[in-house]
Amino acid sequence: MKKSTGSIFLALVFLMVLLSGCAPAPTPAPPTITPKPTSTATPLPSVTPTSVPTDTPTTTPDPSHPSVAKIQTVEFIGKEFELKFKATDQPVHIYEYYVPSENSSDWIELVEIQIYPVNLDGNEPMDFANRTAAAFMQQYPDMRYALLSDNNSDAVILDFFYPTSTRKETGKEFIEWDAFKFFRDVDSEQVIGFHYAKNIEGISSSRPANDVLSDINKTRETIEAAMAEFSLFNP
């Protein structure tokens, strides 16, 4: 994977934002991370690229590849995530997966598959990554993101974090780490987004900044490597 020139060391920005206390809090999007097809960011869990509903050319499915719409479980970072929510009545189709003990109202980690309609303003994976990043920056202009491209394919990885989270626990505050992998569907011209999110406990009297920064960096290294290797499709 190749880092873009705009990649930023996010942990330092995180520390400055938390210490400044100026980060705006996102508004939950029901039921949890369901994005809306809009040109502005939908606060956590995900920012949504602008999508132009249009007819998508159809091709004969390759039997060696699973249908994304029929995937019931996703193996990622050594864990099995189960399908617990889906929304297919909007232009962007959403499939949300959680570990068995968690759900859409109570989660630490989740993965999500987003299937976008063809976008006439740019339909490459990089186009969707750039629109998602732009929407995020519009809402959080003081934050930064990391964008990576694959030299061997058109896949793109985008990651960033929200300075606050919708997760609430007594005596604890959370931030949310988000990473997306945008790639071309094997059977159509549509782009698919694979989204991972994690709620990370923030700074408190019992959790110093160094512990939070270490958790962020470890999460980013793990997810970045896992995203680079991940595929919804059989080889």
Summarize the structure.
With 235 residues, the protein is α+β, with helices and mostly antiparallel strands. Helix content is 20%, strand content 26%.
Relative helix content: 10-25%
Sequence stretches where pLDDT stays below 50 over 5 or more residues: 4-17, 19-64
Instruction: Give the overall form.
Output: globular
- In this structure, how is the largest beta sheet organized? 9 strands, antiparallel
Explain what the structure shows.
- This protein has 235 residues and is an alpha+beta fold.
- The protein has a domain at 69-118 and 172-235.
- The chain is 20% helix and 26% strand.
- The protein has a 9-stranded antiparallel sheet.
- A hairpin with a 2-residue loop joins strand 2 and strand 3 (79-87).
- Helix 1 (10-20) packs antiparallel against helix 3 (209-229).
- The longest helix has 21 residues, at 209-229.
- The radius of gyration is 17 Å and the shape is globular.
- The two termini are 19 Å apart.
- The model is unreliable at 4-17 and 19-64 (pLDDT under 50).
Could you give the topology of this structure?
Layout: E1 2-3, H1 10-20, E2 73-76, E3 79-87, E4 93-98, E5 109-115, H2 125-139, E6 146-149, E7 156-162, E8 174-184, E9 191-201, H3 209-229
Antiparallel strand pairs: 1-6, 2-3, 3-4, 4-5, 5-9, 6-7, 7-8, 8-9
Helix pairs in contact: 1-3
Short key terms for the protein model shown above:
globular; 9-stranded antiparallel β-sheet; 3 helices; alpha+beta; 235 residues; 9 strands; 20% helix
